[in-house]
Specification:
The complex is a heterodimer of chains A (369) and B (259). Chain A is α/β, with parallel strands linked by helices and 369 residues long. Chain A folds into 2 domains: 234 residues, no CATH class; 121 residues, abc type-2 transporter like fold. Chain A contains 13 helices and 5 strands. In chain A, strand 1, helix 3 and strand 2 form a beta-alpha-beta unit. The two termini of chain A are 27 Å apart. Chain B is an alpha/beta fold. Chain B has one domain: Rossmann fold. Helices cover 34% and strands 24% of the residues of chain B. In chain B, the strands form 2 sheets. In chain B, strands 6-7-8-3-9-10 form a 6-stranded mixed sheet, sandwiched between helices. Chain B has a 4-stranded antiparallel sheet with strand order 2-1-4-5, covered by helices on one side. The radius of gyration of chain B is 19 Å and the shape is globular. Chain B starts with 11 loop residues before the first strand and ends in a 7-residue tail after the last helix. The N terminus of chain B is likely disordered. Classes of the chains: A alpha/beta (369), B alpha/beta (259). Chains A and B meet through helix 1, helix 6 and helix 7 of A and helix 2 and helix 3 of B.
Chain lengths: 369, 259
């Protein structure tokens, strides 16, 4: 058995016998994922309605006017051209699209208002449709009087269709983000604290008294962390599939292979970052704040929990270059969109560049004792 | 006085070793030879340079100048080759957490490319029934004995023991002495650093007394005592045939208490 392999097996044994470490590294990300997934942030924001006014007459103005009057925290109204609004709907930025046809409300003609709702946000879409229907009812009453008097021919009605797009629910966004975050946490925290402990216990010194090559020891550390990182990724994805109905890419082997490959690439980057940190964080008092200082901003600014769009442009102009942003974006592209290698080459280049930078840093600052 | 060691080619040759840390000359020209099968003691107050000297011999520290040979191999030039044939027991007995003693010994075996039988090694140091225990769960004496077992996995030509009985109770210390005598009986050369003169007298064929980075005396324990007496030295305390430790052992027995 090779030395590096035995050391890897030994440190995996050590890892799995450390119940606390398993709890913190495997279970906590799962817990965060479940909590945030169940919170379902979709529910907390108002509905956004896009209106295409092809009538441009008094009646359509009345409907839009009333909708705008009602637009408080619950709804937001946006008026634009058909192609614009259609695109917004498809991108998931609208919950419903209302198309008021030409000649809307003209005498003697029955016009049908088309409302297309987004199934991906059912609660908000339902709210939007109900509101539009109410307003149209009010306008009809004003114009034709109460229902019995309304003309059988003429007037207007609402026809509702829905758009079933790709699943882009919050959990579909969250799960790949949490996977990326846990790869980072495992890499940085796992390595920094394992090496810190080995150094304090004098294990590293004891190993130096044997013929073992430092590179073999480091290799074993890295392969241990990568194994755990892959395992963690699989656990989180399976939980996502079971609990939140998340699909991994096109549910084919290639997508799984891509995700695992990304878990390994990301693992290498963050394990190396851990080695670099452990080079100058020689005591727990230093290591704890430094690892948090490095990982915390990435956790919240790399689009793990919320899309980067939610941040001000000034902030995203920097955070789009964070290592975790590249990893989270790449994993999300594969999991959510079934992206192939060519679709994520930008992210891969970003990861490669960061790995080169961090590796250079690690070789400079890493010390055995 | 004869040392009781068969003359032959020395297994350790240290020639004019020097090592400086910042403003302290830790080792200031140390030379000595150790012969096969010998138990060689390094005595000296803290900071005298014994540990640095031993670390140079173990290939864990580069000397500024001088040369150390073990079995004819230059330690500075081929540290890994030297590490393959020596056994090292360090003052801080550090082993991985959460592995059993058997697993640790097997792991150490693979570090040397050797297949080991953990049971045999543990038996040899009196821990035959503790194979499934973890290192942290052991008592002080057991830890020291285990670290000797770990140093034996590669059947070393030379064994370096750094204060192996520090902190042990008299029973455990005597047990350690028996273990070291067993190593000698098996033909292993032992380099022992200690603060206990009694231990050195009991175990060492020759001792080097180190102070301020230099060897100030090197001989068998007995002839060192004789040399002192020849200068007209007189012990002010009356000498008796027994010590308080003898009393302690006779009253509490030799049986180990840490099992």
């Amino acid at each position: 058995m090779s030395v590096a392999f035995s050391l890897t097996v030994a440190s995996l044994k050590m890892y799995f016998r450390n119940r606390q470490a398993i709890f913190f590294s495997l279970f906590i990300p799962l817990l965060i994922m479940v909590i945030f997934g169940l919170l379902d942030f979709d529910r907390f924001s108002g509905a956004e309605i896009g209106i295409v006014d092809q009538a441009q007459n008094e009646t359509s103005a009345a409907v839009i006017g009333q909708l705008s009057d009602r637009a408080d925290d619950l709804v937001e109204i946006e008026i634009g051209s058909l192609s614009e609004e259609r695109e917004r709907l498809e991108e998931g930025r609208l919950d419903a699209l209302v198309i008021i046809p030409a000649g809307f409300g003209d005498d003697g003609a029955h016009s049908v208002v088309e409302a297309i709702s987004d199934e991906r946000s059912p609660q908000r879409a339902a709210l939007a449709i109900t509101l539009v229907a109410q307003v149209m009812g009010t306008v009809a009453n004003e114009r034709y009087g109460p229902p019995p008097d309304q003309p059988q021919i003429g007037g207007f009605s609402l026809e509702q269709t829905s758009l079933r797009g790709d699943d882009r629910s919050y959990t579909a966004f969250l799960v790949p983000g949490i996977v990326a975050m846990s790869i980072m946490q495992l890499g940085i925290f796992g390595v920094v604290f394992a090496l810190l402990q080995f150094r304090q216990q004098g294990v590293l010194r004891r190993l130096r008294a044997t013929p073992v090559n430092p590179a073999q020891f480091l290799f074993a550390q890295i392969s241990t962390r990568l194994s755990i990182s892959v395992l963690q990724t699989l656990v989180l994805l399976f939980a996502g599939i079971i609990l939140f109905d998340v699909a991994v890419g096109n549910s084919d082997i290639l997508s799984w292979v891509m995700v695992i490959a990304l878990a390994i690439l990301g693992g290498i980057l963050f394990v190396t970052m851990g080695l670099a940190i452990s080079g100058f964080a020689r005591t727990e008092e230093v290591a704890a704040p430094v690892t948090n200082l490095v990982s915390m901003p990435m956790m919240f600014l790399s689009g793990v929990f919320f899309p980067l769009d939610a941040l001000p442009d000034v902030v995203t102009s920097v955070t789009q270059f964070l290592p975790l942003t590249y990893l989270a974006d790449a994993i999300r592209a594969v999991v959510t969109d079934g992206a192939g290698v060519t679709d994520i080459w930008g992210e891969l280049a970003g990861l490669a560049a960061w790995t080169a930078i961090v590796f250079g840093l690690a070789t400079r600052v890493f010390r055995w004792e | 006085m004869t040392s009781g060691v068969e003359p032959g080619n020395p297994v350790i040759v240290a020639t004019d070793l020097r090592k400086r840390y910042d403003d302290i000359q830790a080792v200031d020209g140390i030379s000595f030879e150790v012969y096969p099968g010998e138990v060689f003691g390094m005595l000296g107050p803290n900071g005298a340079g014994k540990t640095t000297t031993v670390e140079i011999l173990e290939g864990m520290r580069e000397p500024d100048t001088g040369q150390a040979l073990i079995n004819g191999i230059d330690v500075s030039k081929h540290p890994t080759e030297v590490k393959r044939i020596i056994g090292v027991q360090l003052q801080a007995n550090a082993f991985f957490d959460r592995l059993t003693l058997s697993e640790l010994l097997k792991l150490f075996g693979t570090l040397y490319g050797q297949k080991v039988s953990p049971g045999e090694l543990l038996d040899r140091v009196g821990l035959g029934d503790r194979g499934k225990s973890q290192f942290v769960k052991l008592s002080g004496g057991q830890k020291q004995r285990f670290s000797i077992a770990a140093a034996l996995v590669n059947k070393p030509v030379v064994m370096f023991l750094d204060e192996p009985s520090t902190g042990l109770d008299p029973q455990a210390r005597r047990n350690m002495w028996d273990l070291i005598k067993g190593l000698k009986a098996d033909g292993t050369t032992v380099v022992l650093t200690t603060h206990y003169m009694e231990e050195a007298e009991e175990l060492c064929d020759r001792v080097a007394i180190v102070d301020s980075g230099r060897i100030v005396a090197l001989d068998t324990p007995l002839s060192l005592v004789d040399q002192l007496l020849e200068t007209g030295f007189k012990n002010e305390r009356p000498t008796r045939d027994a010590t308080l430790e003898d009393v302690f052992i006779s009253m509490t027995g030799r049986a180990l208490r840490d099992e």
